[in-house]
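Human:
If only I could read backbone structure tokens as easily as an amino acid sequence. I am handing you a single protein, as its sequence and its fold in token form. I hope you can help me see how the letters and the tokens relate. Thank you; the sequence and its tokens follow:
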Amino acid sequence: MPDISRRDFLNGLAFTGAAATLPASVVLAASPGVYPPALTGLRGSHPGAYEQAHQLAWGGQRPAGKPVAPAEQYDLVVIGAGISGLASAYFYRQQYPAAKVLLLDNHDDFGGHARRNEFSVGGKTLISYGGTQSFDHPGSYSKVASKLLRELGIDLPALAQAYDLQHFQRHGMSSGVFYDAAHFGRNVLLRSAQPTTDAPSAQAAAWLPGMLDAPRFADTLARAPLNAAQRRQLQAVLAGGAQPALAAWLRDGKRAPRFEQLRYTDLLREVYGIRDTALLLLLSMPLAEDAALGGNAITLPLALEGGLLGLPSAARLADWLDDDSLLPTEDETEDDAEGDALYVHHFPDGNATLARLLVQRLIPTVAKVTNPVQSVAAAFDYRKLDQADSPVRLRLRSLAVEAVNQGQGVRVRYLRDGKLYEATARHSVMAGWHMLAAHILPELPASQKAAMRANLKLPLVYVQVALRRWPALQRAGVAAAYCPGSFFQFVQLDFPVRMAAVAPPANTDQPVVLLMIRMPCPPLGEGEAPDLLRQGRAELLGADFASYENQVRQQLQAMYGAHGFDAKRDIAAITVNRWAHGYTWEDAQYQGEPAHTLAARPLGRIVMAGTDSTGRAYTDAAIDAAWQALRQLPRP
């Protein structure tokens, strides 16, 4: 039977064998024709992208000695080629069309978390994403962000129409819950009962359109491998049966004044009597999606915002605590009323299309593209990213190690292939992670460095699995599942989008991409959120490709094996997108204030962009941060 290709195996393990003696950048540099989106194995925080940065952060020593070449001169140097960095260069060139710009990024691909994944299976190219999925609530974007999308030709209504809302229904598939043997005694994949109406609920609209509804635990509890006591406790949570006890618990004089710090797990344990195994069921949604924190770090405000079970309505809670701030804002109400919550603004490669469009506008020779649809189908020529005759140069595998103000400009030093280089410019934009910025901006005040270090990122893993065929998934009837307790907490078939030559498979014998999400923070770990984030990051970076591959095979076999799935036969390739520094942690605090407010302050001719400057891990925040950063630049 066919197995994962040798190429996939080598891409994932090249740096754990003989090639481990060479930095990943050297290996890649030796292959000028490499096309990063098509690389499988370990991606995202790939080997070679972070080791030198960790040495800088942990050792505190910047590379000594002189640069190996004379300093290159530019008008702007951008540190970080994610969406915010690319948008910074784009906006700058709009203001100064003749400007020379250099973008530096330590990864081997641009886009930051907006990363493109490609697979070739049976002669068919499959396109998916390695991070940023979609435009979330684009109707609420700022004028700046909305204008940028229009300038790039992104038609949001047309993009929504490209999403096939009936795809899963045509295949008789919906959502479900997977109970694994390690935690629940046996492997059971249960399909959620779906509503009779074709109109998705508000929860489903923001979840995975086309599923009609998110997994509903009430639908699966009767068949779930739980004991009688667990079932009664969970039914009480679902029914809100502990309302008097809950009110008394919340109104307690020691708890009410610190509502913002109360833990959701404490409420479940102390009010409902829920214990560890059953807790996993109630925590799987935030663990698999927005929170990316261990369960014990989920506060009641976050649980309330996420609609987690066992809590009263916001209105009732506000009445109990006499706190109207718990009520939804008028903007949120209007946003939902406009139907903007439907999560369908998705390119086949996620928001990598936005990054690619920005790159093509900055460096037109990289691809012949005039609109977003063409961008989806185009193979970008990475050799054109860094050409001497181009006014904009994008230099990958280049780690900035120092940026300082110098006279009427800025000096930036960076490492590439282990050698130190230097560039000078009138201005610089720091669009990378603030935790690294604290180490490469020596002029920063100590308080601003501390605020940047407090701006922790949430680790996560997006694994894209290319399947040769998927009849077992159709027979199971489950296209997306929460998997409480499993290594991957969430599994779903790819978004069904029709664009250019890309279309969801018409039948189950055609290849398809499956997404598996791992939030590595301990689900029931003790400690404060920063400690849990560090534990998750350590796990993520300590795992090699073989360990991820084994977990993928074992979990998919356990989920779908009873329906005919054969991991050895059906899995064609695996791309593990590791993001040790993933989502911006929106609750990051420094001295009682949001960490980003102090961290985002400009430093002479160096200004701060990126979502770390906004405290919001969204695409529009990245764009807005770029625009705001340029407004703070001194005039040339």
About this structure: The longest helix spans residues 545-560. Residues 436 and 485 are 33 Å apart (CA to CA).
